[in-house]
Amino acid sequence: MGETVGLLKVTVVQGKQLVIRDFRTSDPYVVIKLGNQVAKTKVINNCLNPVWNEELTFCVTEPIGALNLEVFDKDTFKADDKMGTAHLSLQQIASAARLKHVLKVSAGETRIRTIVPDSDNCLVRESYVSCVDGEVVQDVWLRLCGVESGELELKLKWVDQHSSPLISAPK
């Protein structure tokens, strides 16, 4: 594992039009992986449009990779059913965090970067990396792959290694 460059706070906001994996509904939860780190949300029972509003935190190291997301339907007596996957490159938010220092952006809101949907990402619509009152943030809607329908809304917040007491300097 490389040098720690920051923390990423991922808020899994909501899912929209998720697929049915039980009789008429599903019991969805989200698993997010970054490198060898794994975190998951709580299960929302009987819901195809769940609202989690759950924050998960990851250490970001060089080389900067991608968030990998999987949505599952919780089952009691058999293996959980897949409800789709998505991924999001962290290169844009990481480079925007570095650019923030060069531009010395701090107060108000400044849009630093625009990411458009393409074949290399799972974006539903344009996503913006912004600096809001000194914090680098990105709101995204991701289309779930491998299923008939489903989208996830995430809010990302980058915490610099220099501004967080939780990240110790490399020895």
Automatic annotation (TrEMBL):
Annotated Pfam families: C2 (PF00168)
UniProt cross-references to SMART domains, sorted A to Z: C2
The keyword Transferase is annotated on this UniProt entry: no
Protein localization: Cell membrane; Nucleus
Keyword ATP-binding listed: no
One GO CC term on file: plasma membrane
Keyword list, A-Z: Abscisic acid signaling pathway, Calcium, Cell membrane, GTPase activation, Lipid-binding, Membrane, Metal-binding, Nucleus
MF annotations from Gene Ontology: GTPase activator activity; lipid binding; metal ion binding
Coarse class of the protein's main subcellular location: membrane
Annotated C2 domain residues: 1-103
Biological process annotations from GO: abscisic acid-activated signaling pathway
Domain of life of the native organism: Eukaryota
Similarity annotation: Belongs to the plant CAR protein family.
Record protein name field: C2 calcium-dependent membrane targeting
Taxonomic lineage: Eukaryota, Viridiplantae, Streptophyta, Embryophyta, Tracheophyta
